[in-house]
Amino acid sequence: MVASRYWSRSRGAVGAAGAAGASPEAGFEGTVIVTTIFETKEAEPQVLSAGTPPPITAQLTFLDADNQPSEKASIGDQLHLVVTSEQAGPHNMMVTECVATRVGGEGEAVPFTIIDNGCPRYPALVGPVEQDFDKNRLKAEMKAFRLDGSYDIQIQCTIMFCAGPNGCPPSNCLDSGTNELFMSHGRRKRSIGQLLEEEQQQTAETLSAIIRVLAEGEQEEEVERFYNRTGNRAFSYKIAGNGNATHNRTTSSQHRRRQQQQNVQRQSISPDMVCLADSLFISTVVSMSMICLMLSALIVIWGCHSLRKGHTDDGTGAKLPK
């Protein structure tokens, strides 16, 4: 399992392959451990509020290398972060920001920005956003990862929709590792006049997806025990009939109550209870047998002692001649 430490500060990112397209922020985000493995799901379609352009249904999806919805990924697997919409094409959409945050675990969750101001912060982990006109979508290549060892992470992306024939202009990003410029289809800095004009033709929505992270050999029971121990919320996933994945949030207390009810129902036929009863019965039989053997030995010793005393005593207290 490969883990890398990333440290983000207000004057840029210090870590692996940072991108100089991110705008400075006050303070610092902190340090997170990024491990590349996770199980992916899709976000529910989000309907935008009315405006210009009209209401839009968008979807955030994770696909594998074969462009199939991916439910599980191994360390370092190549994935696609995809944004699709039935009403907007790739030239009318741009990804302005994506933030990954662990769900659950102990201590405060530190946000990990992977796309900022339209540019990838760490191109080695998440690449630039590209327009895929063949499949009418935006996509960014990324490697599977998880944060701080948590089983669940949330990836939240802000998507901007631009009306008009010109659509959304791309961002000019700089790879700090190679000092090369590259294009990414996200927000870029514009003049005040352009901003005033574009604000009347733009609307934005935030999409998110909860991702369950399972390393090799880990089981769902370990996840439930982890959340029960830490008292955090757990997430259970259900695949809908149309192939899209939805997630249902369940508090750990509700899960414990449901688990207790299930345990009560299983007690009458539980193999563990049967094994425990058999072990208790066997140990009881063995203990009683040992007690009987000890009593028998005491009786034999007492009898032998009485016989020996009878041979040396005539009953009057005088010793018999030898």
Automatic annotation (TrEMBL):
PROSITE patterns in alphabetical order: ZP_2
InterPro entries for this protein: Celegans_DevNeuronal_Protein, ZP-C, ZP-C_dom, ZP_dom
One GO term of the biological process aspect: anatomical structure morphogenesis
Residue stretches making up the ZP domain: 1-180
Segments traversing the membrane: 280-302
One Pfam family cited in the UniProt record for this chain: Zona_pellucida
Keyword list, A-Z: Disulfide bond, Membrane, Transmembrane, Transmembrane helix
Region (Disordered): 239-268
Descriptive protein name: ZP domain-containing protein
